[in-house]
Design goal:
Helix 16 crosses helix 21 and helix 19 packs antiparallel against helix 20. The chain has 24 helices and no strands.
Length: about 450
Amino acid sequence: MANQPQAMRRFRLRDIVEDRRIVLMLALGFSSGLPLLLVLGTFTLRLAFSDIDVRAIGLFSYVALPYSLKFLWAPAIDRLNVPVLSARLGRRRAWMVTTQAAVALCLTLMAFSDPKTNLALLGLGAFLVAFCAASQDVVIDGWRIDAAGSDFQGILAATSNLGYRLGLITAGAGALFIASAGGWTLAYLIMAALMLVGMIAALLAPAFDRPRTVQAETPGRSRFWSMRRAVLEPLTELHSRFGGALWGILLLVALFRLPDFLSGVMASPLYRTLGFDLKEIATVTKLYGIWVGIAGGFAGGWALARLGLFPTLLLGAFLAASSHLAFAWLAAGAPEIWRLTVAISIENFCGSFAGIVLIAYMSSLTSPAYAATQYALFSSLYALPGKLIAGSSGFVVAAIGYPAFFVMTSLVGIPVLVLCVAVGRRTGQAEAAAAPARDAQEAGNRIPGPELPTTARAPGAA
C-alpha cells in the first residue's frame, strides 16, 4: 500500500535523464534485438535472394530454436560465475559481456559463409548466434527484473522494447541497405561491430546482483543435485503461488504468439515471390514497419496503464491473431507498394501491441528470488511451439498457397482468447494477494528517488 502515492504520479520527461537505468535499458534492448533478425527475417531474405528452396528456408527456422530452449541453461547463468570477469564486474554484467562478445564472433563467421557454397557452415553460424543471443537475453532480463521494483517494471519493459525495435531496424533495414550496396559479408561484419553498444552498456551498468538466501547443502549431495534443485525450485515456487491454474497459464503463454511465429518465417519468401526487391522490402518492412511496431508497443503500454492487465491481455490476443489476415490479403493481390505498406502497418502495430502486453504479463508472474530462471522459462515457452511448427511452414505453403496459409495462422488465435478468459483474471487475483510481500522484497533494488507509475501491474489487473 505504501507504493500507491508513487504509482499515481504521472511520468515526466526528465525521468528519462534522471534515472540511468532507462538509458542503459535502451542500449541493452538494442543489443538484445540486433541478433534476432540476423538469424530470422534478414537471414531468410539472404537465403531467398540466393535462390534457396522455400521448403529449405522453412527448415532453417530451426536454427533459432535456442531462443525457445534457453530455459534449459538459464539456471546455470543464474547461479554460476564467469571466471575472472565475475569477480571484476559482478555475475550478471560478466555474463552480458561474455555473451555479447560471443555473438559478435559468430556473426563474423556468418559474414564469411556463402549460402551457395557453404550453406551448412552458414546454418551452423546462425545456430551459434541464436544460442549466444538467447543466453544474452536471459541475463539482460534478469538484470532488468533485479534492477527495479514492481512500480518500475513497466517503464523498463517499454524502454527495452524501444531499444529492441531500434536493434531490429538496424539488423533489418540497415543490413538490407548495406547488403544491396556492398554485399552480405559487409552487412554482417558491421552488425558484429555494433554489438559493442551492448558491451559498453553492460560495463557501465550497476551490478544489481541480488544476494540470495541459499539453503545449506545436505551432506552427501552431489553437484548434480544442486543443479537439479536450481531447475526445480523456480518451478515449485510458481506452483505454490498459482496451484493448478499454473498449467493454464503456461499453455496461454505458449500459444499467445503462436500465429506470429507460424507466419513470420514465410513473410520474407512471400515478398520475394511477389516481386519486391531488397530496397523496397527494407524501406517498408524493416524501416517504416519497425516504427509502426514501436508505436504499437507504446500503445500497448498505454492500454496497460489505462485498462489494466486482464482487458489488455484479451485485446492483445485478438489483435495478434486477426492481423495475419492482412498478409492473406497482400498475398492474394497485386505486388504494389501501397498494399505492402498497409499489410505491414496492421501486422507490426498489432504484433508489437501484443508483444508488450505479453512482456508485462510474464514479468508479473515471476518471483524476485528466481527472476532470470522463471522469466527465461516463460519467454522460452511462448516461442517454443511456434518454432517447432514453423519448420514445416514451407511445406504447407507449397501445398495450399500463401493466402490460405495466413488465414490458417489467424484462426489459431481463437483458443488463445479462450485461455485468456479462463486464466487471465485468476492470475491477476493471485498476484494482487502476493504483492505486499513481493514489494517488500524488491524495495532493496530501487534507486533512491521518485518511482514511475507501473504498467506491468497496472490498476485493475486484479
